[in-house]
Design a protein that fits this description.
133 residues; alpha+beta; two-stranded antiparallel sheet; 5 helices; flat
């Protein structure tokens, strides 16, 4: 049993991290890169679109209008472009969704205090001085 394990270890078949394995750092998946290029070609990226909705600006919407005769038979279809304005609840949801793109959440900080009251006072003064006004 040990002999097989040694042979497999020499061939690099025992798993774990190996040099050169995996996707290189900083590279993106082909699908992600393609989706990003397509989104940039249309003119508005998702966070920009959400920002427009949250501001109450009109969004161009395309939809098919199907025309029927009196018997219900389809006569034809027409692609209609219309400008839509969001209601307040939708604007609020869009603002919540767009917020992380423009104002990331603040990180929590932990403070370890000692039993010395002078150190506690100095630590609190240092923290207060670092806070934005």
């Amino acid at each position: 049993m040990e002999k097989k394990t040694k042979v497999r270890a020499q061939m690099g078949q025992l798993g774990g991290a190996r040099p050169g394995a995996g996707r290189p750092k900083g590279s993106t998946q082909k699908i992600t890169a393609l989706a990003r290029e397509e989104a940039m070609a249309t003119g508005l990226l998702p966070h920009e679109w959400l920002l427009k909705v949250s501001r109450g600006e009109g969004i161009v919407h395309k939809r098919w209008v199907v025309k029927y005769d009196k018997r219900g038979k389809e006569l034809g279809r027409e692609l209609v472009e219309e400008e839509i304005y969001a209601d307040f609840a939708t604007r609020l949801d869009a603002a919540k969704a767009a917020a992380p793109f423009y104002a990331p959440k603040l990180a929590a900080q932990s403070v370890t205090l000692t039993d010395d009251p002078k150190t506690l006072v100095e630590t609190l003064k240092t923290l207060a001085g670092a806070l934005p006004v």
